[in-house]
From TrEMBL:
This is Kinase-like domain-containing protein. The keyword Transferase applies. The keyword Transferase applies. InterPro entries: AGP_Transferase (IPR051678), Aminoglycoside_PTrfase (IPR002575), Kinase-like_dom_sf (IPR011009). Residues 99-269 form the Aminoglycoside phosphotransferase domain. GO terms for molecular function: kinase activity.
Length: 329
């Protein structure tokens, strides 16, 4: 639990885990086709009446996942150890309580053996990443302006004030890939406070040289507030997960919500900045409109970006620089 009880405004929506569809097999009455959804057996064997595409396939480890697309049905299917009911629950909640956010329609999910299968609508368009080099600065800013109210909307979702935690929406552990180490399992339970989350994040560097006494680590840890509010967070707002029109700057949707959940309010901004390509980096200040930008900017000065050690780092030890590049990229 947080040390202080968070306050709620008139625009906030309390999302109690108890209201989420919790059955391991759940289907909604929104499938638009006469032909039934493919069964797990058909999906595993890829025996479909229609042609299909494999959008993603990671074959090994507990994070293995296959994502299929059947164009004739406009259907996306996700399955594998990485797939969890929590993503379906998130999409259900976002569609119900934040209708201005463009997300895939979730038709349902089922469990077959040890696997979860999630059935989603396909959002027609292309990733922002695929057009990043052809869009002007003004066009990128227009896209950021469209993303801003969507993210602001989900941040009005709130936990019950007396039941706060950092974790997945169903009170499970966080699923953010920053916590992976190869195929090592992530935390197995939610963090009961922001301090626990910050301490665990800091501990990811435990194997690095001079941890935890070097000035880099002390400054890095002290820059993160242990009293931050907890907000609903997508946590993977990469340019690959923002879908735009093939021919204009219209934002068609935000996809890949499998890591989403309750995180410290700074995490969306920090994580997005960490993974952003250079041309999208400044646009995130428009898209996320974080109210504590100055504090986050200071945090970012200690958070090594992709392919480099942060310019704010005062660490000069060469081997430490090399290790940090490996740890945070």
């Amino acid at each position: 639990m947080q040390d202080t009880t968070p306050s709620l405004s008139s625009t906030d929506i309390v999302l109690n885990p108890a209201i989420l569809p919790r059955n391991s097999t759940t289907f909604f009455d929104n499938w638009p086709h006469a032909k039934p959804l493919p069964t797990p057996a058909q999906i595993r064997s890829s025996t479909f009446e229609f042609s299909f595409e494999i959008l993603h396939h990671r074959k090994h480890g507990p994070y293995a996942q296959r994502v299929l697309y059947i164009p004739h049905l406009g259907l996306v299917i996700k399955h594998g150890p990485r797939t969890a009911v929590a993503e379906g629950q998130t999409l259900w909640a976002v569609q119900k309580y934040c209708p201005q956010v463009r997300v895939p329609t979730v038709y349902g999910w089922c469990q077959d053996g040890n696997e979860i299968f999630i059935y989603l609508s396909y959002i027609d368009g292309v990733s922002l990443d695929s057009r990043l080099d052809t869009l002007s600065d003004t066009e990128l800013q227009d896209i950021a302006v469209q993303v801003a109210p969507m993210i602001a909307s989900i941040r009005h979702l709130r936990q019950p004030p007396q039941n706060t935690f950092v974790g997945s929406q169903d009170r499970g552990p966080i699923r953010d890939q920053m916590w992976w180490s190869g195929y090592e399992a992530p935390p197995t339970a939610p963090f009961l406070s922001v301090k626990e989350f910050n301490d665990a994040l800091f501990a990811l560097a435990a194997h690095l040289p001079m941890f935890p006494d070097h000035e880099f680590y002390r400054s890095f840890r002290s820059s993160f507030s242990d009293t931050s509010s907890i907000r609903f967070t997508h946590t993977d707002l990469a340019t690959t997960n923002i879908i735009i029109s093939r021919t204009s700057t219209e934002v068609m949707g935000i996809i890949d919500w499998q890591e989403s959940g309750w995180y410290p309010e700074y995490w969306e901004y920090l994580k997005a900045k960490h993974t952003a390509p250079p041309r999208w980096y400044e646009c995130l200040d428009i898209a996320l409109q974080h109210p504590y930008v100055q504090q986050i900017v200071y945090n970012m000065s200690w958070f090594p970006r992709s392919g480099q050690v942060s310019k704010g780092s005062v660490v000069k030890h060469t081997s430490l620089h090399r290790e940090l590049r490996c740890q945070w990229t």
